[in-house]
Amino acid sequence: MAEIAFPYRIDARGRTAETSRTGHIRDLIEILLFTTPGERVMRPTFGANLLASVFAPTGAEEAAATLALIQSALQEHLRDLIEVQEVTVRAEESTLEATVVYAILETGETRADSFRRALP
Fold first, then answer.
1. Rounded CA gap, 45 and 42, in Å?
2. With the CA atoms of 66, 53, 5 and 82 taken in that order, what torsion angle do they form, in degrees rounded to the nearest 10?
3. Which member of 32, 41, 94, 112 has the greatest number of CB atoms within 10 A?
């Protein structure tokens, strides 16, 4: 079954762009990672606030806390779709990259997807 692609766009046929189930789950992870809690009106706890963590103090404890928050958000909001196995985050120059290794519960398929954003 086809799902609506993220970000929303019109495809070459002039219709809403679609993606596969696997692509949709990847899109959901990306949305969750880069959404700030409180940003969604009807879902005030939705989001991992990843971009804000870049400006937090640095150190081993802060890095561990950030990863725990991300894993917690993924578990809370996507637990019916995925099982998170590993999360890594790194910032280089003006880019933030998060890599999530997860298993899709429907199929058992393990995937590793990376998500990048330019830092503000």
1. 9
2. 0
3. 32
Residue type, 7: P
What is the structure's pLDDT at 51?
Answer: 79
Run of H or E residues at 59: none
In 1-120, which residue ranges form alpha helices assigned H by DSSP? 21-33, 50-53, 60-78
Instruction: Tally the domains of the chain.
Output: 1
pTM as predicted = 0.85
Q: How many residues does the chain have?
A: 120
Provide the pLDDT for residue 6: 87
Nearest of 89, 93, 100 to residue 51 by alpha carbon: 89
Q: Which domain holds residue 69?
A: 3-118
The fraction of the chain above a pLDDT of 70, given in percent, is 91
What CATH number is given to the structural domain containing 52? 3.10.450.40
Per-residue pLDDT reduced to its tens digit, 33-82:
999 998 999 999 999 988 776 665 556 677 777 888 899 999 999 999 99
